[in-house]
Amino acid sequence: MLPIVTVTIGAIAGAAIATAVLLRDPAPDASVQTADISTDQSGATASQPDEKTAPPEISDTGAGNEAVEATQEPELTPAAFVAPKAESVTELVKTISVGKGDTLMRVLTRAGANRTESHEAIAALNEVFDPRSLRVGQNVTLYFDAGETSNDASPSLVRIALKEDVDKQLAAVRTPDEGFTAQETVLDLDKKMVRAGGVIDSSLFLSAAQAGIPPKTIVDMIRIFSYDVDFQREIQPGDKFEVYFERFADENGQILKDGVIRWASMTLSGKTISIYRYKTADDGFTDYYDEKGRSVKKTLMRTPIDGARLTSGFGKREHPVLGYTKMHRGVDFGARRGTPIMAAGNGIVERASRFGSYGNYVRIRHNSEYKTAYAHMKKFAKGIHAGSRVKQGQIIGYVGTTGRSTGPHLHYEVLLHDKQINPMSVKLPAGRKLGGKMLQAFNAYRADIDQNVAATPLETQLAGLK
Ligand SMILES: [Zn+2]
């Protein structure tokens, strides 16, 4: 991807909005300095100046962000993100797009910043920014004080800023005593609820896409319903779907990103399933529930590891280390050292420590009946210790071969009333079912949502993000 470079020079007098105008529409005659900063590290498209539509790498910051980034138009710069008031300081502003293999240091020095100043600015920025989250295509904006030069005669760096999300900007700003300080700006976006839906022709994905529902929202919807609906077999032409989700707009009403699904429904062969996003007050977990207050998720995953193969089942076998026949009270999954291991369900970690022949061992209590245990780990994931709360799918540790083990694998146990059972044959219990006061609270919430949904017009052709 060719880095997009905006070079603006001008006397910026105070008002932030002036800077915004300059950024949006740099006058050609104001572009004085065009340092050689278009050399992409990858060099791949350097000879194709028109090639600026390559999508940025997929990131987990949501579809909205990708859509905005992908346009590569002059960056949308809400007033609040613009540089601080610079009282008649002659400033240079450069915006550089992060290329493949770039580090922040590389980006800054490519833009002409002095190494020492870059280092100071990055050190400050790292208080609010994880350097590993730097994305290809992400824009970094540098502000130089053209009236002052650093010791190697390059213009002095006064500020670097990068947009983390459509509503979040991080910056390192020079302080009067010559150092840099971190700054985080979060825009207060207006939230608007959208209700969209349609009739399914062939697949939910296609029909939802045709209705203009953002891809990330469709994927979320499919995931939510995947515990109840067999998307391969159950969908018939004429089935219906609806989704009620959050959208965020700036002060001009421009939609900047999509939020979570609050409610969704599918009508399959005349039967409607509705699900509600709901946070249970007693444990603080947010999950999706059906109308009866039952979690759509199964409590436990059978295979709490991705891309692993079952290497040893549950039952009697000749022990590979001890040599005699012994009951194998779990199942083994062969996987490469360091493969992430996930919590099989929501719960509380009972133990995360060395445990005899189990080596590094984690045990999670899911409810009054079920626990799961994970052995021979190389190490525990950050924040996993006795008492910590984990969510289904959360990484709790990494495959290793600690304890009595012949090679890297995960030994996984499911315990019912503290006795190991075979995770492959057991009928796993359904997810949480709300009862008593919890169910009452849920029902009140559900009635609210039903009312809000009914009051929101159904859109069958949604406008996309601009
Ligand atoms: Zn085992």
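qc> The CA atoms of residues 103 and 134 lie 8 Å apart.
qc> done
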